[in-house]
Specification:
Number of strands of chain A: 12
CATH superfamily of chain B: Oxidoreductase, molybdopterin-binding domain
Number of domains of chain B: 1
Strand content of chain B: 25-35%
Number of domains of chain A: 2
CATH class of the largest domain in chain A: Alpha Beta
CATH topology of chain B: Sulfite Oxidase, Chain A, domain 2
CATH architecture of the largest domain in chain A: 3-Layer(aba) Sandwich
Oligomer: heterodimer
Largest sheet of chain B: 6 strands, mixed
CATH topology of the largest domain in chain A: Rossmann fold
Helix content of chain B: under 10%
Strand content of chain A: 25-35%
Radius of gyration of chain A: 18 Å
């Protein structure tokens, strides 16, 4: 698969970023807003973050950008991982004014531009909603006419990251649909599902939406992405129209 | 530049020696793919060596399984920062493939192509001397589809995006042609020990 580079900006060198704000998004996820002199990202891209200990030891991790490309400040959604040396820094230490190092924006495949249009299907599991949120925000500002459906799997309604903003966006925009699949609690809204986001649920939700997606983006754990993408292909979506981003893997 | 309050969780001395800069050790086997996992049928699977558009040799699955096999054991490094130690792969080295085809390398550059249309470039020198294989088994078992089965390229001394999953051909190219990720901001060569992650890394 060749073609011109779809990403206009090359990743920056390591550069200093300043923590502007740390705010809770759910009980297990915080939003970290950084001020950093990076090129304007595309919705869906990520950054590398590097932390340095006093003895020179360094740790790097990648985080998706959840803010809109033209937002003032770069918002990352960071989940606390057990024994996560970088996530625990953001949860337990980071304060406004702290500095760290950042590179980006990175990634030229899992990206959506307003000119790509729709119908646009976004499927997220847990913290996998972060890059999809950048697309939701980008679409809201620049292409609100594009038919879009966000299918979002979370364990409980309280663990739906960006929940209030998603509900408000859907209420204000008839072309944007937001449907939650809640796996460990009753759903809070009519139209949401109280089960795993599996093949029958996908079929049902796409039928209710009434569009055939032209661009599909799936982000979540490997098992989640594997299940969703296989179901979409089995139901006839062209594999090349489906872009995936995964975290974790097999034991 | 020290990060206030960051202490980190250091790997042991042995692991630290085996980790290229910026990498961390994971006991799992993370999966990274650009899209859905293609389902490749062994009945129609084939693998080809090409010189540009011209086919030099082609093997069916049964023919490929009859080629001389080599086991490689060692560490692999993904550009997304994880490294996995002591992985064990079985497959056919590129040296043995060329010998079986009875051909000499017609150029110094290769583009590996996959069943999902992914491609990635590797200099031919990095594929010879036992440094690379077409791997069909992982940990003694058939390679699972999520990890690139039935067959993937294995070039373990480069970042793992070079080890194309679901590989279907190696094509010699007259020049070093960028592949899928190389066109999207990633390094043309990808040596983890020199931390060549992105296009503009030295």
């Amino acid at each position: 698969m060749t073609g011109p580079p779809p990403s206009p900006a090359l990743p920056s060198r390591w550069t200093e970023a300043v923590v502007r704000r740390v705010h809770p998004l759910t009980s297990r996820v915080i939003g970290v807003v950084l001020d950093a002199p990076l090129a304007t990202p595309l919705a869906g891209q990520h950054v590398d973050v590097r932390l340095t200990a006093p003895d020179g030891y360094q740790a790097q991790r990648s985080y998706s950008i959840a803010s809109a490309p033209d937002a003032d400040g770069l918002e990352l959604a960071i989940e606390r991982l057990p024994e996560g040396e970088v996530s625990s820094f953001f949860f337990d230490v980071a304060q406004p004014g702290d500095t760290l190092e950042i590179r980006g924006p990175i990634g030229g495949h899992f990206v959506w531009r307003d000119t790509d249009g729709g119908p646009l299907l976004l499927v997220g599991g847990g913290s996998g909603v972060a890059p999809l949120m950048a697309m939701v925000r980008h679409r809201r500002a620049h292409a609100p006419g594009v038919a879009a459906l966000l299918l979002y799997s979370a364990r409980t309604w309280d663990e739906v990251i960006f929940r209030d903003e998603l509900v408000a966006t859907a209420a204000a925009d008839p072309a944007f649909h937001f449907v939650a699949a809640i796996t460990r609690a009753p759903p809070a809204r009519p139209g949401d599902y109280a089960r795993r986001l599996d093949a029958p649920l996908l079929r049902d939700a796409l039928g209710r939406w009434g569009h055939v997606p032209r661009h599909t983006y799936v982000c979540g754990s490997n098992a989640f992405v594997e299940g969703v993408t296989a179901a979409l292909v089995a139901d006839g979506l062209p594999p090349r129209s489906i872009r995936a981003e995964r975290f974790g893997g097999t034991p | 530049m020290t990060t206030r309050g960051f202490t980190g969780r250091r790997p042991g001395a042995e692991a630290a020696k085996r980790l290229p800069p910026g990498q961390y050790h994971t006991p799992d086997f993370p999966v990274l793919s650009m899209g859905p996992t293609p389902q490749v049928d062994l009945a129609t699977w084939s693998f080809a060596l090409r010189n540009g558009p011209r086919e030099l040799a082609r093997w069916s699955w049964a023919e490929f399984e009859a080629l001389p096999r080599t086991r490689w054991r060692g560490d692999i490094h993904c550009v997304t920062k994880w490294s996995k130690f002591d992985t064990e792969w079985d497959g056919v080295t590129i040296d043995d493939l060329l010998a079986a085809a009875g051909v000499a390398a017609p150029s110094a550059f290769v583009l590996a192509r996959s069943y999902d249309d992914y491609d990635t470039n590797v200099p031919f020198a990095d594929l010879t001397g036992g440094r690379a294989m077409i791997a069909t088994r992982f940990g003694g078992a058939p390679l699972p589809a999520e990890h690139g089965g039935p067959a993937r390229l294995l070039v373990p001394h480069l970042y793992f995006w070079k080890s194309a999953k679901w590989v279907k051909s190696l094509a010699f190219t007259p020049r070093d042609e960028a592949g899928f990720w190389e066109l999207r901001g990633y390094h043309m060569y990808g040596d983890p020990w020199r931390e060549q992650r992105y296009t503009n890394d030295p």
